[in-house]
Amino acid sequence: MIPSSIFEGNLYDFSQEPQRAPIGIFDSGVGGLTVLRQMYRQLPNESIIYFGDTARLPYGIRSQAEITQFVREILSWMQQQQVKMVIMACNTSSALALETIRHEFNIPILGLILPGARAAVEQGKRIGVIATPATAKSNAYKRAILEIDSEVQVWQVGCPEFVPLIEQNRIHDPYTTEVARSYLEPLLEQQIDTLVYGCTHYPHLAPVLRSLLPTSVTLVDPAVHVVVACSQELDLLGLRNTHPPLPTRFFVSGCPQQFAQSSAQWLGCTPMVEVACFSDAAISSN
Q1: Which tens digits make up the pLDDT trace of 151-206?
Q2: How many distinct helices (H) and strands (E) make up the chain?
Q3: Residues 140, 43: one domain?
Q4: What CATH number does residue 200 fall under?
Q5: What per-residue confidence (pLDDT) applies to 286?
């Protein structure tokens, strides 16, 4: 079992210095590493706990009820780790569960949809969104974008094969390029000027997508903008850490070795990965 504090022997008690508490980041797998990398760039003093729910990915084919329950379990676990804030580094969770869950926990919880939508509207008027089927079906990005600017046009495409291909480290597989081409085709027919990564896994596909898109199309990565929002929230709450960060801790619900191997290419090193122990029921629903 993981102790109530992530630090052995409960050496750290963040109640006296809450600004030194870690920030929790979670995703279904390696997609959230795009948010983690932005944290390292923009907020290098913050300590981080990363959780990948690899036993239950992909999230994009799950129901709203399933996603909401998964998020509830993860956030309860995150609270046990004494986090001061949580970033849902998963667009599907942000689209389907954020508004419900936010009222159940007394810590700040940030999602990707609104920061991504704001950034997209700043870039163009003909906006394409590639996302998981669940996120696309929710219309979360389209609603958020049109609430900001009702005059823009938005097209969405569900991309069910992207997450499994990325998790299997098949980014440079010719098959992946053909899949990407088929997903982008209806958006290119609409002459989009902006493309939003509606899933945190998708920036890993940037070389493939960029090769298929006209240079005139701007790519929007909500990971960049949710970290900007995180920085603003930390300042607002007086929780920015000014001390050196503690080492990032990586946890998964599935196979730690597989996650370590998959994530090494994006982290630049092979992380030590631990298994997070929820209840048996929490992890058994595949």
Answers
A1: 999 999 999 999 999 999 999 999 999 999 999 999 999 999 999 999 999 999 99
A2: 13, 10
A3: no
A4: 3.40.50.1860
A5: 36
The total number of structural domains in the chain stands at 2
**236 in the same domain as 209:** no
What span, in angstroms and rounded, lies between the C-alpha atoms of 167 and 256?
Answer: 13
The reply to whether 199 belongs to the active site is: yes
Q: Is 173 annotated as a binding residue?
A: no
pTM (two decimals): 0.91
Q: Encoding tokens for residue 81? A: 């780790």
d(CA 158, CA 130) in angstroms, rounded, equals 6
Residue 269 known to be catalytic: no
15 is in an annotated binding site: no
Per-residue pLDDT at 13 exceeds 90: no
91 marked ligand binding residue: yes
Using the 3D structure, point to which of 203, 222, 241 is the last residue of a domain.
222
Check whether residue 202 and residue 239 sit in a common domain. Answer: no
What is the C-alpha separation between 203 and 201, in angstroms, rounded? 6
Q: Which of 90, 230, 269, 277 is catalytic?
A: 90
59 annotated as a binding-site residue: yes
Q: Which domain does 262 fall in, by range?
A: 8-111+225-284
Catalytic entry in 199, 255, 269, 277: 199
